[in-house]
Design brief:
By secondary structure, the protein is of the alpha+beta class. The protein contains 2 helices and 4 strands, in the order E-H-E-E-H-E. It has a two-stranded antiparallel ribbon with strand order 1-4. A two-stranded antiparallel sheet has the order 2-3.
Length: 62
């Protein structure tokens, strides 16, 4: 599965990158983006990032 970050909602706090930098990074606009798909090893970290996002900007995409 892949996580997606809604660029219109993201406030660029970087929390998701701190939780799972294997999947999330900051783009040139200062907002987070999912640069990799989730793997079996980091799936729970991605879910933690989704749950921790202060503005609920991250979700799963099938």
């Amino acid at each position: 599965m892949k996580a997606v970050v809604d660029q219109d909602v993201c406030i660029g706090c970087g929390l998701c990158c701190g939780i799972c930098d294997a999947v999330f990074s900051m783009n040139d606009d200062g907002k987070a983006e999912a640069c990799q798909s989730a793997s079996e090893e980091n799936h729970s970290d991605v879910q933690s990032a989704i749950d921790s996002c202060p503005v609920s900007a991250i979700s799963w995409k099938d």
